[in-house]
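Study both lines:
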Amino acid sequence: MAQARARKAANLSRQEVLRKERAAALGDPVRGITTPFIKSFDTGVPLPANSEETSQSQSLPDARKEKYLNYSLAPHELEDALARSEALSAPVPSSVQHNPSIHDIDPEAEQKMHAAQHANATEALARIASLANSSSKDRLRANIARCVATFGRHSTDATLPGGRNVAVPIAVSDTPAAQRREPGTLPDTPRAGPDTGSAEVQIAILTAKIRALANELERSGKTDKMNKRNLRLLVHKRQKQLAYLRKKERGGARWQHCIETLGLTEGTWKGEISM
């Protein structure tokens, strides 16, 4: 009995040593390496490039400086709403008032009061619409939109090598590019909208969900078994997408751009992941 216990303890200690060696060699299979793009998932706002912008961004939240806003708002919608509210709340000129004698306020003072009230309303709406005051659901929505814009092939085809061939119009079908095409082959169909289904976009979206769920598990403790299972499913789903992308791209530009931006190590796709 004592020998069996000793063998079991030795096996457990060996497993712990192997687990630490694998973590040191391959990296964390859940989080990987924290890059600036990954760190920005916590706020939903891209991190500034230099230190001066970083010190300015630590002030009060301001939706006028953000591209993705709270409550699924677009920046132009917020600007249009502010402009419309300013026009609707503007003081009525005395020339069109029915009874001007009722208003004893000086027109200039009334204009200054209106400008101050509109400035206060603009500041309040900018803080409310900022992602810094958003829920985790709104931050995840903004992160998914950023992943589509960053990794979607509708934007990376122009910057990364190996882009797709766009369909050639009939008017330029006699160009040298069209003449070099092999007979019997058809050009690729033009994209109808943003690319949301490619492997790199799905990997980025899964990474955003994994980070949000891992942060929640750190706060809630070890008793949330349902979210533990959900995290394990997301990690394994990302592992399959990474294996597919690596096999298809064979270490090409898209693969390097994906793993370097998301900070994904070999531990996120190589071998068996046990959690």
In short: Residues 51-57, 165-179 have pLDDT under 50 and may be disordered. The radius of gyration is 28 Å.
